[in-house]
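Q: How would the structure tokens look for this protein?
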Amino acid sequence: MLTYKVVEIKQKSFMKGFMTASDLQNAINMWANVGWTLDRMSAGETQGFLGGKDVFLLIFKKEVAVPENLFLMIDNQSVLATEDVLVTLKINRKVSANTLACFKGMDGWQPLHIVAPGLLEVLMN
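A: Here is the predicted structure in token form.
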């Protein structure tokens, strides 16, 4: 399952001055250290109440395999967690850390954050 994360960095601020190349590299490294890959970068300006601000967007991506034979308890029904089902659940915000989950053959249901923590991170992003 492929997911994206957008990180906004102010290119300049009243308090900190201008962003340096080192600041940018540190931001990229911080997300890379937790499994995200830089997909692309973009610069622009936003409109705000007190005027616009220059921003730099870092777009990261992360691929997480959908575990086989994973079931989720959604609206009191057992649902096989396919990629299509997970995308729909994510869009509709039907999944949380406490959503009950189990693998085929498990003795009981446990919270998703215990059963598949890597998948949860992608679903909650």
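DSSP finds four helices and nine strands in the chain.

Helices lie at 21-32, 83-91, 112-115, 117-124.

Upvote if useful.
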